[in-house]
Fold this sequence. Notes:
Layout: E1 3-8, H1 16-25, E2 29-32, H2 43-55, E3 61-66, H3 70-77, E4 84-86, H4 90-100, E5 104-108, H5 114-126, H6 133-148
Parallel strand pairs: 1-2, 1-3, 3-5, 4-5
Helix pairs in contact: 1-5, 2-3, 4-5
Amino acid sequence: MMKIAIASDHVGLELKPTIIEYLQELGHEVVDFGPQSSERTDYPKYGQKVALEVVEKKADAGILICGTGVGISISANKVKGIRAVVCSEPYTAQLSKQHNNTNILAFGSRVIGSELAKMIVKSWLEAEFEGGRHANRVEMIGTIEDQFLC
């Protein structure tokens, strides 16, 4: 099973325990990087925390939750080596892993409910990177990243 880093902002806080419990039921180890209270917080620092855990190989994958999933995923994607995807349905989650080798999944607690979130997580975790022509494209993304991210 996998070690999964998870974080949210204050808006995603209510959904996060449901996802943690679900991941644990699936047999995964989960490390929660916060927040622990509903006090207003800034999502970029939580996106960065999870992203660093993933690129430093302290976690196998990451899951991020904010209102829409967009802001927190943009923050994570600023870390070199991260390919975070925002998903609101399972098919995109599956293909993002198969074709783009995504290493962080993000979604919005204002966009989807807990049961759909579980379906998205399951589809993403069960998918495997297909390699082949997709590996070339992921390598191209890395090349772009090398040119523009410091």
